[in-house]
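We read letters as residues; the fold follows as tokens. Both lines appear below.
***
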Amino acid sequence: MIPEKLFEDGHIDVFEKLLDMQNLRKKVLNLIFSLYETEFINESLLEVLNNSLLKVSQDCCEENTSCYNCLRNYNNQKLHKHIKRGLAKKALSSLISL
């Protein structure tokens, strides 16, 4: 229970400020965690993009087509005639350079 004297003397402001500081602390910690999480995701995404670029940069087929070594698989067989290694290489290079 909070003594009434605290309300009379204006000491309640101290408690309000402490509560505000606790809320601020939570917000700062959440922000730090979010930034760390974002950085981790960005690093992971960049790693995936770089590995993908390595895969489509190998000379396994002509750049105006694709093969099972670079981009083709059973699941995308209906799209094989449209999948081009050169376009994938160009798109990945552009994404990585951003």
Remarks:
- The first helix runs from residue 4 to 8.
